[in-house]
Write a structure and sequence with these properties.
Three copies of one chain form a homotrimer.
Chain A: E1 17-22, E2 24-34, E3 40-43, H1 45-55, E4 59-66, E5 71-76, H2 80-93, H3 115-124, E6 127-133, E7 136-137, E8 144-149, E9 155-165
Antiparallel strand pairs in A: 2-9, 3-8, 4-6, 4-9, 5-8, 6-7
């Protein structure tokens, strides 16, 4: 199993940039993913880089939005060992079986037993807004855009909106 | 007490959308809320949907920003049982009475005894940036925009800015 | 040592604002910081206010993006006592020495022993998107934009992009 972290490579460096101006362009896509496990970390970066490059926006922002309450989006490295640590710290902070009221049929009509999924997603966040420059997302060398499936397996949708100057 | 989660209903579905272009419009409002309890979760979604619909922006983003350090904004479901679980996990992660230095008059001139409030807000986040399409915020069926009062009761202000193409 | 929290003062109040329109301007800068300690909280607010004021953007948003995976950006107060509490809660939630796989040479090629840094940054977040009005960031009186060095000392870069109407 790989011990390495995936490297992000932009075509051009992302430093300071003189002001640019123009009409606003807004372009949206969706990413759909079928997850396989209850807790699963998926690297969205390559898909996102392709969407931004194809959007026509050169300078602006990109919003990556999970359409779900138990599926999170956040930045970190893509490495097998680190992802095992992420799953471990999520269980430490929010135990799966801790008599949550959301899982109690006397108090909740949700029968998925996924209180932990909601609480973990709350801590990780459901969206990211990244910068776009030179037609690509701004990401540091080791930064990857990760999705955390917290109540899988199931079908997940993220809406990606790029906004800026063409 | 209701066992259900509140459903979010947009007037039109929020999927992929062909690129749109136009002049940038920026519109801002404030939401003011008087909270009643020390820890209280409030569903802002209906207020926010009305503000975005009234803004004149069709495609773009909306920023919801808490003007405070002990009042958070985040996405999750609006359900009584889940909200009890959220309050429980906040107390587990950040105990109210744990001899925090921020509560110690020898180290801090704040007399509100609200160190826990600051730390919990730090974990939940103070703002959200959502997408706007078809003149409405993009939210999944079960997603609600929630405010967490963490040091109430008091008066709270959130600034809502919509930005995009009219 | 100071018991006070730093106050944020805008030149004009940040309330509701009638819709403004115009061409989109995008301006980017970088902030570079040499940190001195392993865990260190740095107040970026003054630097950020100067960058936004100098950007030429009057109404819009500013994105503050850490280019790293072990350096976070978040909102809270700038007070010595509170910052000691933040460091304490980070150690409570994510222990530095807990046999993380990311620190295990049999599983990971990273030799920085910084699994805790990655996990803490994941919980705090790596970026903020704030509103801009009247040519300044929108911040409440007690809100400061804080950077958390979690694996220092080292050189850190944040990219700041201002986007909106001139």
């Amino acid at each position: 199993m790989s011990k390495s972290s995936t490297v992000t490579v932009r075509e051009t460096p992302a430093g300071a940039a003189a002001a640019k101006t123009g009409a606003l362009v807004v372009h949206a896509d969706t990413i759909t993913i079928e997850t396989d496990e209850r807790i699963q970390l998926i690297d969205l970066t390559d898909r996102l880089m392709a969407l931004v490059r194809g959007s026509g926006v050169r300078e602006g922002i990109v919003s990556v939005w999970s359409m779900h309450t138990t599926c999170a989006v956040f930045i970190n490295e893509a490495q097998v060992a680190l992802h095992a640590d992420i799953k471990r710290v999520l269980e430490q902070m929010v135990a799966r079986d801790a008599e949550w009221l959301h899982n109690d049929p006397d108090h909740s009509d949700c029968d998925r037993m996924n209180a932990d999924s909601h609480l973990r997603a709350m801590l990780l966040g459901h969206s990211l807004t990244a910068q776009v420059t030179g037609g690509e997302p701004v990401l540091g060398q080791w930064q990857r855009i990760l999705m955390a499936e917290l109540d899988g397996p199931r079908a997940r949708t993220l809406r990606v909106q790029v906004m800026g100057i063409a």
